[in-house]
């Protein structure tokens, strides 16, 4: 992949996952700059030879790609200085936003000179090269920028494009937020095992290895439905059937549907917080 000069605005959880994931894949540290007001966060990056700054203006000026990795709620304040004195011309830069729920139209309004704006919804497993990211680009964005954005995220995991921007809300429920659902499930399993007298670290090993194994089974058997994989574990009248009966009785499927709908609904509301 091409190694463009890329500036991250915001060096928090998601920026760390992407930047450290990219470094692991050989993206040159000297081509990346991370801007964050917090010295401790900047230190995390400078320890890996990534350029750091608390001067967004200067760092954006020299960038070919600007990736906004700040909380959606602060995006307006973050963008204002770039346009206030018409100081930064974004027309030749690729602008990427990973902010949940914030539309291209809104980013365009915040950065009027920008011509190429791409939205990406990544997730933190990018840190370990197992990320999943959804991408959306309006029709005017050039193929070379779309290709760059896709290859950037492909370097740290898998990607999919959506044609309809509204679908980015659902993508958030399936990529950005979804590792947290699995973490919650794993936490609950670990806790249950501890209550059954298994020590905490063995409980963690049992949970992590089973989760990893299950995910790997899904990945390596693309022609077998996930339901079939579940059924293969479930002996008639056996232990798994007893466990699954409780999940079904308490309507796990409906709980998951409601949780993911709540995620979508929150994403649809986020723009109003700007
Ligand atoms: N976390 C995740 O799993 C995912 C997050 N996202 C999106 O990524 C974005 C960032 O989320 P996340 O990394 O979790 O948030 P974090 O709060 O961890 O990171 C945001 C960082 O931006 C910094 N910041 C605040 N103001 C500025 C500024 N003016 N200039 C530069 N940096 C600034 C914050 O500093 P300080 O803390 O001092 O305010 C903080 O370090 C959000 O828009 C979110 O929707 C998307 C997918 C997944
Ligand atoms: O919780 C959030 O709003 C962000 C977006 C997706 C994951 N974290």
From TrEMBL:
<keyword id="KW-0560">Oxidoreductase</keyword>
<dbReference type="GO" id="GO:0055129">
    <property type="term" value="P:L-proline biosynthetic process"/>
</dbReference>
<comment type="function">
    <text>Catalyzes the reduction of 1-pyrroline-5-carboxylate (PCA) to L-proline.</text>
</comment>
<dbReference type="Pfam" id="PF14748">
    <property type="entry name" value="P5CR_dimer"/>
</dbReference>
<protein>
    <recommendedName>
        <fullName>Pyrroline-5-carboxylate reductase</fullName>
        <ecNumber>1.5.1.2</ecNumber>
    </recommendedName>
</protein>
<feature type="domain" description="Pyrroline-5-carboxylate reductase catalytic N-terminal">
    <location>
        <begin position="6"/>
        <end position="101"/>
    </location>
</feature>
<feature type="binding site">
    <location>
        <position position="56"/>
    </location>
    <ligand>
        <name>NADPH</name>
    </ligand>
</feature>
<feature type="domain" description="Pyrroline-5-carboxylate reductase dimerisation">
    <location>
        <begin position="165"/>
        <end position="270"/>
    </location>
</feature>
<dbReference type="GO" id="GO:0005737">
    <property type="term" value="C:cytoplasm"/>
</dbReference>
<dbReference type="Pfam" id="PF03807">
    <property type="entry name" value="F420_oxidored"/>
</dbReference>
<feature type="binding site">
    <location>
        <begin position="9"/>
        <end position="14"/>
    </location>
    <ligand>
        <name>NADP(+)</name>
    </ligand>
</feature>
<dbReference type="InterPro" id="IPR008927">
    <property type="entry name" value="6-PGluconate_DH-like_C_sf"/>
</dbReference>
<dbReference type="InterPro" id="IPR000304">
    <property type="entry name" value="Pyrroline-COOH_reductase"/>
</dbReference>
<dbReference type="InterPro" id="IPR028939">
    <property type="entry name" value="P5C_Rdtase_cat_N"/>
</dbReference>
<keyword id="KW-0521">NADP</keyword>
<keyword id="KW-0963">Cytoplasm</keyword>
<dbReference type="InterPro" id="IPR029036">
    <property type="entry name" value="P5CR_dimer"/>
</dbReference>
<comment type="similarity">
    <text>Belongs to the pyrroline-5-carboxylate reductase family.</text>
</comment>
<dbReference type="GO" id="GO:0004735">
    <property type="term" value="F:pyrroline-5-carboxylate reductase activity"/>
</dbReference>
<feature type="binding site">
    <location>
        <begin position="69"/>
        <end position="72"/>
    </location>
    <ligand>
        <name>NADP(+)</name>
    </ligand>
</feature>
<keyword id="KW-0641">Proline biosynthesis</keyword>
<comment type="pathway">
    <text>Amino-acid biosynthesis; L-proline biosynthesis; L-proline from L-glutamate 5-semialdehyde: step 1/1.</text>
</comment>
<keyword id="KW-0028">Amino-acid biosynthesis</keyword>
<dbReference type="InterPro" id="IPR036291">
    <property type="entry name" value="NAD(P)-bd_dom_sf"/>
</dbReference>
């Amino acid at each position: 992949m091409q190694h463009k000069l890329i500036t991250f605005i915001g060096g928090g959880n998601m920026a760390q996952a992407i930047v450290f994931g990219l470094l692991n894949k050989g993206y040159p540290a000297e081509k990346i700059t991370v801007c964050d007001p917090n010295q401790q966060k900047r230190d995390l990056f400078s320890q890996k030879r990534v350029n750091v700054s608390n001067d967004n203006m200067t760092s954006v000026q020299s960038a070919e790609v600007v990736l906004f990795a700040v909380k959606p709620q602060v995006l307006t304040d973050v963008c204002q200085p770039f346009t206030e004195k018409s100081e930064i011309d974004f027309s030749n830069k690729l602008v990427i936003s990973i902010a949940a729920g914030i539309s291209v139209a809104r980013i365009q309004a915040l950065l009027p000179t920008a011509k190429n704006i791409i939205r990406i919804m990544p997730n933190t497993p990018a840190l370990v090269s197992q990320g999943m990211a959804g991408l959306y680009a309006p029709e005017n964005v050039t193929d070379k920028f779309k290709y760059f954005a896709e290859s950037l995220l492909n370097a740290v995991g898998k990607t999919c494009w959506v044609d309809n921007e509204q679908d980015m809300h659902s993508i958030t429920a399936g990529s950005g937020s979804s590792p947290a659902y699995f973490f919650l499930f794993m936490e609950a399993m670990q806790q249950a095992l501890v209550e059954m007298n298994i020590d905490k670290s063995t409980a963690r090993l049992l949970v992590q290895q089973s989760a990893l194994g299950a995910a790997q089974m899904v990945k390596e058997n693309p022609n077998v439905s996930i339901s079939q994989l579940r059924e293969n574990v479930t002996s008639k009248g056996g232990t798994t059937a007893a466990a699954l009966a409780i999940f079904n009785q308490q309507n796990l499927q409906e709980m998951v549907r409601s949780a993911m709908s709540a995620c979508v609904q929150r994403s649809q509301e986020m723009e109003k917080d700007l």
